[in-house]
Amino acid sequence: MNKTQGLLLVNIGTPNTATPDAIKQYLIEFLLDRHVVDLPAFFWYPILKYRVLPKRVPYIINHYKKIWIDDLSPLMHYSQQLCEKLQQALSNIHCQLAMTYGEPNLQFALNKLQSCNKITVLPLFPQYSTTTTLSVLDKIKTIESSQSIPNNIHYIRDYADHPSYINALYLQIKQAFEEQGKPDVLVLSYHGIPERYIHKRKDDYIERCQITTLLLIEKCKAHGINLPIEMAYQSKFGKGKWVTPNTSDSLEKLAHNGVKYVHVICPGFSVDCIETIYEINEENRELFLHAGGEKFHYIPALNDSNLQINLIKDLINYT
């Protein structure tokens, strides 16, 4: 394909199938990345192999089987749909999808873009973190140093405060309120990170989440949406201290304080996945209702919507 510009979308990754072997293989690659877990390998690997995997694999497979879409995980399904729709919308740009872990891998996708004079790399993580975005950038730089690929690679660090991103989230919220009714509280749930990464790595992820929240609150208020909006962090893993407040704790507290109806949106997830579909829309829904809440609505990620297509067009300055 003779196109001078390339767009590489990168998401976190997913098992190829909902089987124990595939899930185990994915988790090993993911959790052995020092960007994700920075414990010494000699200490961490035995714990991962003999304690973490035996517990996590059965847990994950049971939930994946419920949410698989057309033989694909939701993350892969929506990521592929997004890439295909972008290719149709960006007729003069060669679009490729890659995963940080698993398939299609970064090297394969970059090879597909070898004929391009310029490649824009867009990690699908709205808020930069050393646990996600930096892993992508480091892997690509390693490939660059060992392979003949274009030197003209442009990286989009993140888009936590981009006006089109804030507007897309606002419109997603507005539509949910119109269709489901206005809740008592809107909860913004971001993926958590270990607290030590903030200081040890100078990771500004929390600041990027906070700026998204502040801008979204301003946008909502400017358009007449006045209600309590809270932010929290989900998906805690392991026993170390993670950033707070925890989403589950926040929802439980809201219910105990008499809040009957909540909407939850996950601004840090570009497409829906097990963390949103199961962890939020099933696990946390049940927790909120069990604690005394009466109604819970999960607002879907932008996925392959026109809002997401237009957002990415604006991010790459496509006209």
Structure description:
With 319 residues, the chain is α/β, with parallel strands linked by helices. The protein folds into two domains: 154 residues, 3-Layer(aba) Sandwich (Rossmann fold), CATH 3.40.50; 137 residues, Rossmann fold, CATH 3.40.50. The chain is built from eleven helices and eight strands. The strands form two sheets. The protein has a four-stranded parallel β-sheet, with helices on both faces. A four-stranded parallel β-sheet has the order 6-5-7-8, with helices on both faces. The two termini are 21 Å apart.
Number of helices: 11
* C-alpha-based Rg, rounded: 20 Å
Mean of all residue-level pLDDT scores: 94
The second-level CATH architecture of the largest domain is 3-Layer(aba) Sandwich
Distance between the termini: 21 Å
How many strand units? 8
Strand content: 15-25%
Helix- and strand-based class? alpha/beta
Helix/strand order, N-terminal first: EHHHEHEHEHEHHEHEHEH
Tell me the overall shape. Answer: globular
Q: Might you state the CATH topology name of the largest domain?
A: Rossmann fold
Summarize the amount of helix as a percent range.
40-55%
Low-pLDDT runs of 5+ residues are none
Which sheet architecture does the biggest sheet show?
4 strands, parallel
The CATH class of the largest domain is identified as: Alpha Beta
What's the number of structural domains?
A: 2
How are the strands of the largest sheet arranged? 2-1-3-4
